[in-house]
Amino acid sequence: MGTTDITEKNANVINLPNRIEWIDIAKGIGIICVIIGHMGIYSVNRVVFSFHMPLFFIISGYVFHIDNRSFTNTLKRNYNSLIKPYIATCIAITLLSIMLNTITFHFYKILPDTYNWFIRSLYGSGTNANKTLFNIGQIGAIWFLLCLFWVRNFYTLISKIQSIFIWIIIVFLFFIGYHSVKYIYIMWSIQSAMTAILFYHIGYKIKQYNLLNIKPIITTLICLLIWGLCLYFNKDIMSIVRNKYPDISLNILGAITGTIVIINFSKLLTKFKISKILTYFGENSLIILCFHLIELNLLPWQSVLTKLGINNAYICYIIIFICKIVWCICGVHCCNNTKLGRWIFQKKVKSAIIRTVSK
Fold this sequence. Notes:
It is a single chain. The protein has one domain (3-358). Helices cover 66% and strands 3% of the residues. It has 15 helices and two strands. Strands 1-2 form a two-stranded antiparallel ribbon. Helix 1 (21-37) runs parallel beside helix 12 (285-298), helix 3 (52-62) packs across helix 10 (248-269) and helix 7 (163-180) runs antiparallel to helix 8. The longest helix is centred in the first third of the chain and has 33 residues, at 71-103. The chain is globular and about 60 Å long.
């Protein structure tokens, strides 16, 4: 039997818990698809939107576990991990908007833009539809943070109820959320949470019954076939943020099977070097989402390329995608290496540990 000696360079540094690599890889694929999905390529979006947001909710449900913490502690934890980054991103985009308007001498836009971003941040709608109260514009991609906040908290409340009643509650919420957006989009992405909780619960059930380990090769092939058929027969795009399900049964089935395909593919990728890149994106997916929102609204990539005389659509897509990725990586670096960034995104510093094993 061997012994292990562990020494730390800094006793005040906190050790990070072990992460599940395939989960980070799947999240990495998901967040890259989020960026691609916002580039406006319809044929690509038909595939990407069929699984990318359900994937995050299913994985979040997969790692959910019932504990004995009080609901107040759970609420506080979810606030720190989701609402704090939301508020920080809203403040950042408002301040950057002021700075850009000042640099470009658009002083007349400072007050209306500041007011606009404040109202959008307060309302927290992920869609720009005119069914919001007072026609308030969208806050954009970080609607997901508000949505997941409500999903986590509500699921914590109902998780100890008998399973059959949980299903009844979740299906009821889904249809309330689905039908109510036909009339109005209410604050804080609550209606999106009403439908997204279904995927969260499915993720929890997948973990509870260990469904990912049931003949994974056969399961992947079957899910890939079903996913493909769902995409083929459903010609429109699903959108959780709008609670838009053109064909509810095909959309839900496609989202679940598509997610399982991505998850099993992620497990396969753990054997290859590319997994390190995707793991990096998955570990930092929350930061990337927030910085993606900033560049999506404030950085005029297309206008710059047009001024440079680059008009080929394919070349523009490639250059813009690279710029978006570089911007997000810079954001991750800044947040992971500053106290403020680590505080906002709940990042703990990895300790430098030296292990020596003697036989």
